[in-house]
Design brief:
The protein is mainly beta. It is built from four helices and 18 strands.
Length: 322
């Protein structure tokens, strides 16, 4: 939860909100397409990896236009890391090309890799299916047919027509759990109680007979076994926030279907988050009871329906810290 009160979810590959970047012309080597699960149309795509791989997007060349009626994928290299499985979060580098024009319309290279929920229901199924065919460090090429992106992506990019095939080269660099994992901690009497649904989303019940704490409460609900979070790191979290006095939810990353990322311990978020999350371990789930002084202060946050006297309750799953 940002100090300003504006909650910004992660820019996500599957809703195609990342900024585009030009492909630099550098010394290159050509990546040969290996084991194939895609249609022969993808065999005609030449992939050139620039010498600045990781910061400069690979170059995709093909005879224009390259059109498909059915989305398909081809594993270029399987990778040697962990196998991607449904339900995980994957960090992905990608380049997207409009096959009508041959132009790069978006890429994460030279910017920030994207965090992708590996669940076909939460994104564009052919892209998820392509990623699930790879391991960390691999590459997969996906030709996305217009019928598979029109509802979610149409109009998202200037110059892309609803009849264009989109070509993605994606490379997963890391996978993490999509919810807190670790050892359950016994609940503490007098604090809000938390129940989780099948996906891990919390529901918070505030004890009506117990007044809100006037000091910050940091109570682990699950103790993760990952590294300790350090000030200045970017943390990847799922969270839900409610007002203590009413029990009313005012924000939840779970409802958006994607976790959020914040720099922690640097005054970029409300003090209760900086104080509560730094020093905890990745994989943990925290219950934070945050009085106004460690929340939005006397001014509150009218946009979220939070007054200057409201104590807040957050349930935070710490998924990663980098």
């Amino acid at each position: 939860m940002r100090r300003s009160g504006v909650t910004i979810a992660l820019t996500v590959l599957l809703v195609l909100a990342s900024a585009s970047a030009a492909v630099a012309q550098t010394t290159t080597t050509t990546a040969a397409a290996s084991s194939s699960t895609g249609a022969s149309v993808l065999d005609k795509v030449k992939i050139t990896i620039p010498s600045g791989a990781g910061t400069t997007a690979p170059v995709l060349k093909f005879a224009k236009p390259l059109n498909v009626k059915q989305s398909t994928h081809k594993v270029i290299s399987e990778g040697t890391g962990d196998q991607l499985t449904q339900g995980q979060l994957a960090t992905v580098n990608f380049v997207e090309v409009d096959t009508r024009t041959g132009k790069v319309v978006r890429t994460s290279y030279g910017a920030t890799p994207q965090t992708v929920q590996l669940d076909p229901a939460s994104g564009v199924p052919p892209l998820i299916e392509g990623l699930l065919a790879t391991k960390v460090g691999g590459q997969v090429l996906v030709a996305l047919a217009p019928k598979d992106y029109a509802k979610k992506l149409q109009g998202a990019v200037k110059g892309v027509k609803a009849t264009d095939t989109l070509l993605f080269l994606m490379s997963p660099t890391k996978v993490t759990a999509a919810r807190a994992t670790g050892t359950a901690v016994p609940p503490v009497d007098g604090l809000p109680t938390v129940t989780l649904d099948a996906a891990g989303k919390p529901t918070v019940a505030v004890p009506s007979a117990v007044p809100a704490s006037t000091s910050l409460v940091v109570q682990p609900l699950i103790k993760g076994d990952g590294p300790v979070v350090q000030a200045g790191q970017s943390v990847l979290v799922h969270y839900t926030g409610v007002v203590y006095a009413t029990g009313k939810q005012f924000d939840s990353s779970w409802d958006r279907g994607q976790p959020a990322s914040f720099v922690i311990g640097q005054g970029k978020v409300i003090p209760g988050w900086d104080k509560g999350i730094v020093g905890q371990t990745v994989g943990s789930q925290l219950l934070l009871v945050i009085p106004p002084a460690d929340g939005y202060g006397a001014n509150g946050n009218s946009q979220a329906g939070i007054s200057g006297t409201d104590t807040l309750v957050f349930v935070v799953d710490i998924l990663d810290a980098t």
